[in-house]
Amino acid sequence: MKIYGDIKSGNCYKIKLLASILDIHHQWQHVDILAKETQTTDFLSKNPNGKIPLLELANGQYLAESNAILNFLSEGTHLSSSDPFVRAQILQWQFFEQYSHEPYIAVARYIAKYLGLPEARRGEYKSKQAGGHKALRVMERQLKNSDYLVDNRLTIADISLYGYTHVAEEGGFDLSIYSAIGGWLKRIEEHPAYVGME
After folding, report:
1. What is the pLDDT of residues 70-79, one digit of tens each?
2. Radius of gyration, CA atoms only, the chain
3. Residue 34: which pLDDT band, with cuts at 50, 70 and 90?
4. Domains of the chain, CATH where assigned
5. Which of 60, 61, 93 is nearest to 79 (CA)?
6. What pTM, to 2 d.p., does this model score?
């Protein structure tokens, strides 16, 4: 299997982390989004939405969207669940990540880290701070009551949210004020198969 991505992208890194924890053999294909490599005819034939990460299976099938890939690759493993309610809780956090977390934390980080915080986008960067802290407070409340987000064990819900949370400070978010999140980050990073962003 082949994974197209940029390891510095939280959405792509999630897949790399999952693959390491589950010991999934794969080929990593770096894609430079700033060079518009996701907009080439060849890439668009694989994913018409022109985004990474993208999973290519040995049979020629393609799967896009980071959380869809996480769910597919974790099916039947200890990072998922056979219990319908627990699976729904995992999805709940993944939907939260994409709707209430990533649009603020990831975008602020992108403006600062990838674009160098240009003056033309400083207002947008600042506008993302309140929404990002709201998402972090939601996570903090949950993690004060349990070591992980769902079922008190590591699942793909944690991997989904770890991707951008652990680098949130690169988007201007002070994580030191969230002690429960800090403990959660440490637990994930202590996993024997943990791999960091390169």
Report:
1. 999 999 999 9
2. 17
3. confident
4. 2-74 (3.40.30.10), 84-189 (1.20.1050.10)
5. 93
6. 0.95
